[in-house]
Design goal:
Its EC number is 2.7.8.-. With 520 residues, this protein is α/β, with parallel strands linked by helices. The protein is 44% helix and 14% strand. Strands 3-6-1-7-8-2-9 form a 7-stranded mixed β-sheet, sandwiched between helices. Strands 10-11-12-13 form a 4-stranded antiparallel β-sheet. A two-stranded antiparallel sheet has the order 4-5.
Length: 520
């Protein structure tokens, strides 16, 4: 084994011990044996060149980066990223401090290579690592042990999880929600604020958990699960809210008509609309909405609204307040006493967006000011609704989190693993201009059980049927308590996350389950 390959292995040991990768001893041993096999001449040279892609491929496999198959499947979308965003992602994967540490270690090891046979230390290191649990394993075991002391039921056996998941999906397929029982005109407008990249974890990071916008919520879903970590499937889950959660693949290619939210709202007497603050071209987002959600109308834009920032793919993102205000005034003037049902999709918080006048090159650093600006914009829009006097139910239903903080399992900004931190979002309802205002010091109604989109719109359906009486605090409490609990299941690109009590489980695309660290 040459000194360069020996240094490569020893550096990997350091990354493994630091918890930055999870080294696979058996595969590394196989590669080390290949490199030390006694060959001569051209065969030896060929093996060294062959080992180069194998070494880097193995390192990628051991890293927290997305699987190569996933990268390949999304290659077309990734090529649409701006150069600036691609560079930013690269700095998150390999940051300056890591490069400096690796460079210093490489120099020291190169000096030692003149005095020691580093290949011997490679095999010693592999033997030691094979006999010890990895830092990631130790952390999982500590978390699981801490749960076991307070939860006597214990985790589900891994070989039972496929049956548990199948039973959940079978039960969800049987659920349907009818929004209105008769054809009478709806008593209020409906506005659904569908914000990309906003989870409870992100709110905590941006210190906005107690922002004025959040205090306006009359009903808060404490444990709301989006079921998805990417915009396409997340919005489709919202637009299929009349039915329960189904496997992600079933969202595409045409759902049952009774599952389609906008079709149900249209049958209830609404004029439905979908409004974007972006062009909807990335990854075919707007085309997907028309194809897979039963929309009879194309998504709209307000092209004369000012541009607030540039998106991760370099296209304009328009000012949220201006888009909403201009559209609302034009539409409500046009329908008179009719009722509108608006789904507004905003990507102002998406990773990689660039804001004019903010010098930082990191969109992670600009997340908090962008979130404050979005919340201020939504407050302006809510004030406009309030001044209009039109009874309106405003639904906050974010798509998914932004992974702003990141964790040991995936890099900040990446959303491949559908963990609870990504799918646990601040969903709720605001009841405006109903004549029954909540007292300033009165808390909102909290729905404390696991919930998702059908639970959210079950409350909307109850408000449609119950009129003003259903908006009273005590009635809202009863509505929240009557909602059935839901298994916590989320999915993305072959990964499935299931949580039962304090135990989380992840199924990888190869069909294997593993017990994960505890989630709050």
């Amino acid at each position: 084994m040459g000194a360069a390959y020996a240094i490569h292995f020893l550096l990997k040991f350091g990354l493994h011990l630091a918890g930055l990768i999870e080294l696979v001893p058996a595969l590394n041993l196989a590669l080390a044996l290949l490199l030390t096999w006694p060959l001569r001449g051209s065969a030896r040279t060929a093996v060294r060149w062959l080992a180069l892609p194998l070494a880097f491929g193995l390192l990628y496999h051991e890293s927290p980066w997305p699987p190569l198959a996933r990268v390949w499947s999304t290659f077309g979308a990734v090529t649409d990223f701006s150069v600036v965003y691609l560079l930013e992602l690269a700095t998150r994967i390999v940051h300056a401090q890591m490069l400096a540490a690796l460079l210093v270690a490489s120099v020291l090891l190169a000096g030692l290579a003149t005095r020691l046979r580093l290949s011997v230390w490679v095999f010693i290191g592999l033997a030691v690592i094979a006999g010890l649990p990895s830092p990631a394993q130790l952390e999982r075991e500590r978390d699981i042990a801490s749960i076991a002391t307070s939860d006597s039921s214990g985790p589900i056996a891994l070989n039972q999880l496929d049956r548990t998941l199948q039973a959940f999906f079978d039960g969800e397929r049987a659920k349907t929600l009818k929004l209105a029982e008769d054809s009478g005109p709806p008593p209020f407008d409906l506005v659904i604020l569908n914000v990309c990249s906003l989870s409870w974890d992100d709110l905590d990071t941006a210190r906005l958990g107690d922002a004025p916008l959040m205090r306006r919520l009359d009903v808060v879903f404490d444990r709301f699960n989006t079921g998805a970590t990417y915009s396409g499937p997340a919005v489709l889950r919202l637009l299929h809210a009349n039915c329960g959660l189904v496997p992600q693949g079933e969202l595409y290619g045409g759902a049952r008509g009774e599952c389609l939210l906008m079709r149900g709202l249209e049958q209830a007497g609404y004029q439905p609309a979908v409004l974007l603050n972006h062009d909807g071209r990335f990854d075919g987002f707007a085309d997907m909405l028309r194809r897979d959600s039963g929309l009879s109308i194309p998504p709209e834009q307000v092209l004369d609204a000012p541009v607030a920032m540039k998106s991760f793919d370099g296209n304009p993102i328009r000012d949220d307040a201006e888009v909403l205000t201009r559209w609302w005034r034009a539409r409500t003037d046009g329908v008179g006493n009719g009722r509108v049902a608006l789904l507004y999709n905003s990507i102002s918080l998406h990773d990689g967006n660039r804001v004019p006048g903010i010098a930082s090159v990191s969109s992670l650093e600009t997340y908090a000011p962008r979130a404050r600006k979005l919340f201020d914009d939504l407050e302006r829009f809510l004030d406009l609704i309030e001044r209009s006097g039109r009874p309106t139910v405003v639904v906050l239903a974010p798509e998914h989190g932004g992974a702003v903080r990141g964790d040991a399992q995936q890099i900040a900004g990446l959303r491949e693993l559908p963990t609870r931190a990504l799918t646990h979002v601040p969903a709720g309802l605001m009841l405006m201009n109903f004549g029954v205002a909540r007292a300033a010091d009165a808390p909102p109604v909290h729905v404390t059980q696991n919930a998702s989109y059908q639970s959210l719109f079950a409350v909307v359906a109850a408000l449609l049927r119950g009129g003003e009486e259903a908006t009273r605090p005590q009635r809202l409490v009863e509505l929240g308590q009557a909602l059935p609990p839901l298994e916590w299941v989320a999915e993305n690109a072959g990964h499935v996350y299931l949580q039962r009590g304090p135990y989380g489980y992840l199924r990888t695309p190869d069909g294997n389950w593993r017990l994960m660290s505890a989630q709050p």
